[in-house]
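Intended use. Records like the one below are meant for learning the mapping from a protein sequence to its folded structure. Do not use them to infer anything beyond what is encoded.
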Amino acid sequence: MDCSAALRPPLALAVGVLAVAAALPTDGRAERRDAEVPAHIAGPVRFPGCVPPTDLEVCATPVSGGAARCVRPRQGEEELQYTLQVPAGEYLVFARSDSVQPGLRAYYTRAVPCGLSVDCRDHEPMVVRVAAGQTRVDIAPADWSSVQPAGVPAA
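Structure written out for the chain above:
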């Protein structure tokens, strides 16, 4: 006698159980878990001159509003590097040094990926989008030629 058929539930019962499970409301735990997974923004930090100031920091401000998250860069193999841990979202990334340029911010702008040459004329800060679990690299807040005063909307 084949006992395996007796152990399998009838197909109609299995489909009914799946339909009920699909109709149950979710409590949002999966969405909250995704929101709790950090994202990262990273890249080189460039400062005009030979020696960067000791108070140099890189910050990311949420486009939707809220407090900036900041970190001091560390020396990489060839240049200063930073990594910011942030919630998923959209950010404006900038560098600042209050000892050298009080109240001013150098943003990651369209001129940075253009090469920062005199032909790169778009100095508007670029919005950096980052998803949960994602790391955006090569985000360099290096446009010191169009420094934005703190408190002035960049975009």
